[in-house]
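Quick question: what would this complex look like in 3D?
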Amino acid sequence: EAQVTQNPRYLITVTGKKLTVTCSQNMNHEYMSWYRQDPGLGLRQIYYSMNVEVTDKGDVPEGYKVSRKEKRNFPLILESPSPNQTSLYFCASTRDVRGILSGYTFGSGTRLTVV
Amino acid sequence: QKEVEQDPGPLSVPEGAIVSLNCTYSNSAFQYFMWYRQYSRKGPELLMYTYSSGNKEDGRFTAQVDKSSKYISLFIRDSQPSDSATYLCAMSLHNTDKLIFGTGTRLQVFP
């Protein structure tokens, strides 16, 4: 089954404790992206990657890091999480860069709480 | 002013009703318009897309774009309880990969 897999689904952590949210896709998509979803603000792009070793900032990159060493994986790293990073996070991938023809395939989300 | 505005709802309708979901936008350069559906505890999934102006129909769903008014709509005919979800509009410019999402409208269809 074609899918984007994120782990973990739920995470509660403390301020300052480094964490990684993993994302893997099995569709051989070149374009991958991370979003956070907050009430009243919608989906906002954190980082995206056009291909292996090619990453760039989205609209809200502060406090996040990403890497793209392999085509299928695109982990999101929070080096020193803070409470304002409490959010619902989605990883997405797409075949064509704007996601027009095939749409973005989203993971099921990671609910992160930073206390 | 946000680039894309969407009423958050919730919109509650009886089964069988015609539903109209809308987004307005400020950037007249947007060319691609999409609707995503997001069920509770799931990621969004693409429902429909249109390029530039006009209508597009897919079963019970019709997407409409009015570029002169900077307004897009999604109509759902014969709504079903299984249509209960949050609907997000999204759009992008012609020459960029950036997809701008609306905040979503929560729809509840009751039997």
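Answer marked as accepted. Residues 2 and 27 of chain A are 6 Å apart (CA to CA).
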